[in-house]
Amino acid sequence: MSELAALLRERIGATGPITFAEFQNLALYHAQFGYYSAGLQRTGWRGHFVTSAEIAPVFGRLWARAFESMWTDLGRPAQFDLVEVGPGEGGFVEAVLGACAGRFADALSYRLVERSPPLVERQMERLSSFDNVSWVASLEEVGSATGCLFANEVLDNLAVHVVERTGAGWVELLVGLRGDRLALEAGPLSDPALERYLEDTGLQPPKGHRVEVGLEAVELARQCARTVTRGAVVFVDYAIDASSITKRPAGTLLAYSATGADEDLLDRPGHKDLTSHVNWTAVATALVDSGMTVSGPRSQRDVLAALGAAEMDEFLKEAHRAALAGGRGVDALRALSQRQALGVLRDPSGLGGLQVLAGLRGVAAPWELAT
Ligand SMILES: C[S@@+](CC[C@H](N)C(=O)[O-])C[C@H]1O[C@@H](n2cnc3c(N)ncnc32)[C@H](O)[C@@H]1O
Fold first, then answer.
1. Is the pLDDT of residue 240 over 90?
2. What distance in angstroms lies between residue 300's CA and the mean position of ligand 1's atoms?
3. Could you give the CA distance from residue 17 to residue 177 in angstroms, rounded to a whole number?
4. CA–CA dist 85, 150 (Å, integer)
5. Do the beta carbons of residue 215 and residue 193 sit within 8 Å?
6. Fewest CB within 10 angstroms: 15, 194, 254, 306, which?
7. Please, are residues 79 and 178 in contact by the beta-carbon 8 Å criterion?
8. Whose Cα sits closest to atom 20 in ligand 1?
């Protein structure tokens, strides 16, 4: 049994069942034993899964072009605020900062909001050669921003409540104890906000279906929208809309660990990532309620095409050819591996199938701007 499982058993035994959202928050972010807070590398080649940001710098390079186009569309303000929420191992920020040059680089202020202290330490080490990046404890500390708030694969990691439709209405699935094992049990809804969310998103699944309710994702979308005075909020994630949610009887929650994906959500808390598909309907509504217009969702494949993936591929092809002709083997391999990474990022059955949603205030969507 994991240390966290023992702590949870003790707590639940003493004070009763907890919501799945509380369980997930502890499993991922418990200061000592949480999946993301215990200090181990989780994303990237030495972790349990590789995100677009950690595949290769080409992902950040393409987005750097989009950020520069946004800056131009906003009238080239003296400061362009790029705020990344949940930068993880820091691959995206490193690639973006490495790709920006000239007047845009001078205007760029890159701020990072990261929840896990050991990750902040690793980010600081990785990014020590850049002087235009800084860390803030929360979005409140950012205050207001002219530019872009960006989050890749963060919303799907935020804690969700789990509810189930029964003949007598909704019940919430809580984490309790069966004997000495953690087990889900039905109880009344723990928060009136759950009922409002279910009504607002029009979720009416058949009886017996489970649905995740991402109140934290909605709150983060609201906070992001409030922070951007002019510019965009961009979320890249595994997502679904409200009408498709009702077609998944068991919901979308999955656990990831060294052995791959499984549905044993309560097993070994702290040793597994817990993710669920983001409900775009709820997130888009939060952005619109905060005065933004919404564009998307678009597939990552389409978005990268609009950001210039084909031109980047041509450029890398030429760099590869020139390096081979000049006998520069390492450069040739580097260009080739970036080309292959582009293919992985655009693969419709893999990372290319991720979805991108943008909230906009006074700027066009990244995929509508010339790069
Ligand atoms: C799946 S990782 C993705 C990391 C990175 N964006 C990438 O694509 O490689 C999720 C990250 O979001 C962070 N995170 C989760 N909730 C957060 C929040 N409310 N504020 C800031 N960071 C958060 C986690 O600590 C983790 O670093």
1. no
2. 19
3. 7
4. 6
5. yes
6. 15
7. no
8. 115
Alpha-carbon gap, residue 357 to 155, rounded angstroms? 12
Alpha-carbon distance values, 322 to 12, 108, 328, 357 (Å): 64, 32, 8, 38
First-last CA distance in the chain: 52
Alpha helices per DSSP H over 16-90: 20-29, 52-55, 58-73
Tell me what the mean pLDDT of segment 248-274 comes to.
92
Report the nearest-CA residue for atom 11 of ligand 1: 86
In this prediction, residues 332-351 reach a mean pLDDT of: 95
pLDDT in tens, 25-78: 999 999 999 999 876 777 777 777 689 999 999 999 999 999 999 999 999 999
**Pairing state between β 228-237 and 145-152:** parallel
Alpha helices in the chain (DSSP H): 3-15, 20-29, 52-55, 58-73, 91-99, 102-107, 117-126, 139-142, 192-200, 215-227, 242-245, 280-289, 300-306, 309-325, 329-346
Q: What's CA 267's distance to the chain center, in Å? A: 23
Residues lining ligand 1, Cβ inside 6 A: 36, 43, 51, 53-54, 85-89, 113-116, 119, 152-154, 157-158, 220
Strand partners, 177: 182
pLDDT, tens digit, 9 for 90 and up, residues 195-226: 999 998 888 888 999 999 999 999 999 999 99
Run of H or E residues at 258: none
Q: How far is the CA of 159 from the centre of ligand 1 (A)?
A: 12
Nearest residue (by CA) to ligand 1, atom 23, is 86
Q: What are phi and psi of 367, to 5 degrees?
A: -85, 0
pTM, two decimal places:
0.95
The whole-number pLDDT of residue 203 equals 84
Tokens 């580097």 correspond to what residue?
334
